[in-house]
Write a structure and sequence with these properties.
The complex is a heterodimer of chains A (266) and B (269). Chain A is built from 9 helices and 10 strands. Chain A is an alpha/beta fold. By secondary structure, chain B is an alpha/beta fold. The chains are: A alpha/beta (266), B alpha/beta (269).
Chain lengths: 266, 269
């Protein structure tokens, strides 16, 4: 299986007053084609810093990000710009990530400026229409504006936008965290279907270990900028080796004991 | 009965056309010392319901029916009477502790503020009480943290301060609207433990609003399931989750992650 993403000894320091804080500390990961890797951690674990570096939206203090054999931070700016069509991102907030003044068709087509050979005119409209239908919306939605859509529908628009350049890698940073549970379920099913149909790889960043279990093949657990534990999702969740992973799993609200009165006194 | 709601309807005036009704006749009872969970998705009306109980509905809203707090109808109260119950009879805990707290005021002063204004408590006594409350919500090294500003605390600590403020005037009813939604899971578990212990210890009633059935299962004796302003079902939380009477409840349960659903089928496992 071809390796799409390799993260090697990645670190990122931020200035803080006189000293610095290490938000990401020597993290190494690998993601193969058609696989979904979940990165799970709490606030301050460094998971969003990792997402920004993988998207080349920030530069590391040390280490490399290799996508499809290309070392992102060794590329000249022009080449990096061209490489960007191969990795796209879906953000957490479907209200903040879509320009309210643009029609959906224009929003979805936006990343095509990265591709000099992108279709124009009627071919471009057909491409947008096909993608909108692919994510469960209607072709006619291209002429409507973001405010006419619910949060879940907006996230579908954001996913269509991320897919238009046929990327090899999709980075989803808390992409379902702002959604209702029933809507989250639909979006997770959509991501799984798109993976099966297009063979896309997904780096799925979340604070929710239950969601990891739903769609991820592999999982990386992070704490305080470090990788705590990695492995196949089922194995890590069912047989965690590290204390922190166990704590994270134990804190998840479960339904085996219901109500206060049934709880054993502490 | 601590809180009785009878046929509560709330509608919002629109610029054009008839008013939009968002709560279509809700009934519920919450006895003293018990906890009620209200679960629903966006647009279910759960937050409008909590605002109605506090008498905090916006001016564009019209409410009918009864919201009886210890027999007194909140909907019929004047603003002056409402000021007398908010904080004193009903404590409120909000979702976002950073925006609910005053960023320019030390947390000890924020807890003491209500005590000094409504009870005329002397400054030193109010500070001592604030310290006691901070210890009650298990803020570590409370005597040092009492002079902290909100931005110097973590999200979980800020939410504990929010709980301390809500409890300062010894209310009989606590309303918590998504109190742990902004918190990390490990912190959420601690805050729910604290809420559970305090409600039990103080014998007060709690109405907790959440979109998360896991949170509801942790703390609610009874659960009300809402959808688009209607009550879908209400009952003992255990019965609602293990033997849902309504399709919508089943849909909510089915939307939970596999691990959580599996735990429902394996009691005490």
């Amino acid at each position: 299986m071809a390796e799409i993403l390799r993260v090697e000894n990645l670190s990122r320091d931020f200035q803080l007053g006189q000293g610095h804080v290490r938000a990401l500390d020597d993290v190494s990961l690998s993601l193969e084609q058609g696989r979904i890797l979940g990165v799970v951690g709490e606030s301050g674990s460094g998971k969003s810093t990792l997402a920004k570096l993988v998207m080349a939206l920030d530069r590391p203090t040390a280490g490399r990000v290799v996508i499809d054999g290309q070392d992102l931070f060794a590329l000249p700016p022009r080449a990096l710009r061209q490489a960007r069509r191969h990795f796209q991102m879906v953000f957490q907030d479907p209200y903040g990530s879509l320009d309210p003044r643009h029609a959906v068709g224009r929003i979805v087509a936006e990343p095509l400026h990265l591709d000099p050979a992108a279709p124009k005119g009627a071919a471009r409209r057909d491409l947008v229409a096909g993608l909108l239908e692919d994510v469960g919306l209607a072709a006619a939605d291209a002429d409507r504006f973001p405010h006419e859509f619910s949060g879940g529908q907006r996230q579908r628009i954001a996913i269509a936008r991320a897919l238009i350049t046929k990327p090899r890698l999709l980075v989803a940073d808390e992409a379902t965290s702002a959604l209702d549970l029933t809507v989250q379920k639909q979006i997770l099913e959509l991501i799984l279907r798109l993976r099966d149909e297009h063979g896309i790889s997904v780096l799925f960043i979340t604070h929710n270990i239950g969601v990891v279990d739903e769609i991820c093949d592999e999982v990386a657990v992070m704490q305080d900028g470090r990788l705590v534990e990695t492995g196949p999702a089922r194995q890590v969740l069912d047989h965690p080796r590290q204390d922190y992973t166990r704590r994270l799993l134990a804190a998840e609200p479960m339904l085996n004991v219901i109500g206060r009165r049934n709880r054993a006194p502490v | 009965m601590m809180l009785s709601i009878r046929d509560l309807r709330v509608s919002f005036a629109r610029e054009r056309g008839p008013a939009a009704e968002v709560l279509h006749g809700i009934d519920l009872d919450l006895p003293k010392g018990r906890t009620l969970g209200i679960v629903g998705e966006s647009g279910s009306g759960k937050s409008v319901l909590s605002l109605a109980v506090m008498g905090l509905l916006p001016r564009s809203a019209t409410a009918s029916g009864q919201v009886l707090l210890d027999g007194q109808d909140v909907l019929a109260m004047s603003e002056r009477q409402l000021c007398g119950i908010r904080g004193r009879r009903i404590g409120m805990i909000f979702q976002e502790p950073m925006t609910a707290l005053n960023p320019a005021m030390r947390v000890g002063d924020q807890i003491a503020e209500g005590l000094r204004i409504t009870q005329g408590m002397p400054r030193a006594d109010a500070r001592a009480e604030a310290l006691r409350l901070l210890e009650m919500v298990r803020i570590p090294r409370a005597s040092e943290r009492i002079d902290s500003f909100p931005h110097q605390m973590s999200g979980g600590q800020r939410q504990r301060v929010g709980i301390a403020i809500a409890l300062a005037l010894k209310p009989d009813l606590l309303i918590a609207d998504e109190p742990t939604t902004a918190l990390d899971v490990t912190v959420q578990a601690e805050v729910l433990d604290i809420l559970d212990d305090l409600v039990t210890e103080l014998g007060i009633s709690l109405m907790l609003i959440s979109h998360d059935l896991g949170v509801i299962a942790r703390i609610a004796d009874r659960t009300l399931v809402m959808y688009r302003g209607d009550r879908m079902e209400e009952g003992e939380t255990e019965a609602v989750l293990r033997r849902p009477a309504h399709d919508y409840t089943r849909k909510l349960i089915a939307a939970m992650p596999r691990r959580v659903r599996a735990s429902l089928e394996a009691p005490h496992g």
